[in-house]
What does this fold into?
Amino acid sequence: MIREIPVTRIQTAVETLLTEAAYRLPADYLAALEASAPAEPSPVGRQVIDLLLENSAYAQAEQIPTCQDTGMAMLFLEVGQDVHFTGGDVNAAIQDGVRAAYAGLRKSVVGDPIQRINTGDNTPGLIHYEIVPGDRVTLTALQKGFGAELMSRLQMFPPSVGVEGVVRFVVETIELAGPNACPPVIVGVGLGGSFDTVAHLAKKALLRPIGSTHPTPHLAALEADLLAAINRTGIGPQGLGGRVTALAVHIEAGATHIGALPVAVNLNCSAPRRASIEI
Amino acid sequence: MLTPPLTDTDLLSLRAGDAIRISGVIYTARDAAHKRMAELIERGEPLPVELAGQAIYYVGPAPAKTGHAIGPAGPTTSGRMDSYTIPLLRLGVKLLIGKGYRSPEVKAALVENRAVYAAAVGGAAALLARHIRSSRVVAWPELGTEAIHELTVEGFPAIVINDCHGGDAYADGRAAWEERGE
It folds into this structure.
């Protein structure tokens, strides 16, 4: 059975999710941040965590953005194969939703990376579609600040570097990022695939709720090992020194070529704005 | 409490890791405004604002909600301004506020020119905006959030990262808490 969904419904959902994400940090993130406070022995680190929690509560109460960098809008749509979008161009509808959501938010997008003229309405948002079974649409919005995005890295390693090479690269990425990525960070790690898909895996890893672990045991164990290694660096909240440098490491992995071990690391900052809805 | 214009005496007593508060007028500038200032300096032309003794805050504020002086206004990554910073220090800018690492060249220039780099807490933008009493664009309005804004601040909180004696709070913090493998 084909299920018809008017594109205006998608447009409204995009606007609502992005507006909500700007003002309210995800509950799973706030719970993880709160839980990290007792694990932070550095007094300044602890102060930063308390300040971030206070900032989040204040922004939500005042209905103002938690961070001035409300980022680029990134929209991830899992579209059931039985869905038929009606009433116009779904891509245009999504951009209309982005434009409406950013009316009161910061405009942080330039149309051309060389000429760098601000588009004035924060469009275009970046859209990713995935076809899935069923007749539902799951829409996830990420409002990605670029302090953390800028510190992301990708390397096409040979298989010989092994898991040790992966750990070294991820920890090195966190060390290079230091205070720039606004720790405590959330670390998305993509493993496998190709040059383009490994970056997408790392980004998708940031969509997972904090506290979730990878369903495959050896990857769940690697997530835990990476988190421990990152939190031994001493970088700490805001890079001022401490033990809570990352709150979570999420891995997404995929099949790859016999000659490669692609690794990508995508970071999210201490204001990881994300919201999701099923339509 | 630091109130610009700042003197060498104000800055010499500051040490990496010190919590400071700033009151009075500070100027915003981020990527696009820095590029334009660097071009003016290179051509020997005056800057749109007199920066000797002043503080630059690396921020692109969010739009103000009705009844607020400014929208959330937390620091952006300072390292992106490194390549434009040394000529500004030579012009007498005394305090830089942002977040994140500075280049070895900028750190040396801070010592040489007696200036200080301080960090505000990234991600605490909504709370930081409460310390900003007024905001007006003083140059390049066409740059939107990237225009130079003159902010009047009261007790604006920051932490000294690089002082004018070569101290580095990021390096000290990490050294104090790093757990080395056996």
User: Anything to note?
Assistant: The helical segments of chain A are 7-23, 27-36, 43-62, 90-101, 146-149, 162-177, 195-205, 217-231. The first strand of chain A starts at residue 3 and ends at 6. The first helix of chain A runs from residue 7 to 23. Chain A touches chain B through 48 residues (CB under 8 Å).
